[in-house]
Design goal:
Length: about 325
């Protein structure tokens, strides 16, 4: 029999992909604001202005940040154009207030779910706009069925512009070879464990073996002096890297998701390391919330507390 914790994880993963359930929550005048209260622990808000306000606050505390307008798997051209327009506006606004930081996104939000050409054209607009303001674009990595297309588009753009980086998932067996190829490009490489459920024929599960792969990839990038974002909340991995003195290097940063282990990131920042907060915003937060709850079932209790609380929790205060 499955443990209650496993049942919760399974239910959250299926809720994340269940459109009927999503609509039932999001179209309900009663449920929507309650869930939004829980989402706010991990999401800056629904509007760009809210995200920029939090980013400014984080920045005043010496954190770097990576802003993302949430969305993925967008299949209508008009919606992809709208998302691209929002990213253009975000980049321009950051540029005008001289915040030379990072903007992150999923290629399937700006066209990959239609075809590669749409995604490429939209990405080209974004990278040119970001280049004007000295802002870095960071491409997220999605399900393994999209890895080849994402890397193809990334390489085409990274061959022309150096203000673009890529995320790689340590859990995929292929990552070892991908790294060897991608270090030929100047772009920063963000190493994550991987958030998507993949078959064991192509990916490791959470395990010591995955952790040792993660460390092996970081070791390699450090040895090559390649710009790297170490994107994990795993304290044991962070401890090893700290012992190896990786965080003293200028082109190494530690990146964590907004609202997750702010205490840990704060303690690393106090040691003088480059610490970055991944700060998403936008109305499409449902799937993002489900992912964060499924990653750590204890977060379900926090969500319940947030929903029942009469005071609006501000996650940025935890940093
Ligand atoms: P792991 O999942 O093993 O967790 C280690 C420890 O961290 C846990 O024991 C717990 O203490 C803490 N922790 C982790 N998640 C938590 C949570 N939700 N709540 C509370 N504590 C938690 N993935 C992907 O597939 N493509 C991508 O593009 C990205 N992009 C990305 C950017 C950034 C900046 C980060 C930090 C992460 C991603 N991810 C991602 C997500 C990533 O793949 C992974 O799913 C999460 O980071 C969780 O994995 P950890 O490395 O933290 O380890």
């Amino acid at each position: 029999m499955k443990k209650p914790e496993q049942l919760v994880i399974q239910a959250l993963k299926s809720a994340a992909r269940n459109h009927q359930m999503k609509d039932a929550f999001l179209l309900s005048n009663e449920l929507y604001p309650l869930l939004l209260k829980a989402a706010r622990r991990y999401v800056a808000g629904e509007e760009r202005t809210e995200a920029i306000a939090i980013a400014k606050n984080m920045s005043s505390k010496d954190y770097r940040f990576s802003l993302e307008f949430i969305g993925e798997n967008t299949v209508l051209l008009e919606e992809c154009q709208k998302a691209t327009k929002e990213f253009m506006a975000l980049i321009e606004e950051l540029g005008k207030i001289s915040m030379k930081q990072t903007v992150s996104f999923d290629l399937s939000h700006i066209g990959l779910s239609i075809n590669k050409e749409v995604a490429y054209n939209h990405l080209l607009q974004l990278v040119q706009q970001a280049n004007k303001y000295d802002i870095l674009l960071m491409v997220s990595m999605e399900e393994s069925s999209k890895t080849d297309d994402i890397l193809t588009i990334y390489k085409m753009i990274a061959a022309q512009y150096d203000n673009i980086g890529i995320t790689l998932q340590a859990h995929l067996y292929r990552t070892e070879l991908d790294i060897q190829e991608l270090v030929q490009y100047p772009g920063k490489i963000r190493i994550v464990k991987g958030a998507f459920q993949e078959p064991s024929t192509i990916a490791f599960e959470r395990s010591e073996e995955l952790n040792s792969r993660y460390l092996q990839y970081v070791d390699l990038l450090i040895k090559l002096k390649h710009p790297i974002s170490i994107a994990t909340h795993d304290e044991s991995i962070i401890q090893v890297m700290e012992q190896r003195q990786y965080f003293h290097q200028a082109n190494v940063e530690i990146e964590m998701l907004y609202g997750i282990r702010p205490d840990l990131l704060q303690s690393l920042k106090e040691k003088g390391y480059n610490c970055k907060v991944y700060l998403p915003y936008g109305q499409d937060w449902y799937l993002y919330l489900c992912h964060r709850l499924a990653e750590n079932p204890e977060n379900v209790y926090l969500a319940l507390a947030d929903i029942l609380s009469t005071v609006l929790e501000d996650s940025s205060e935890g940093y």
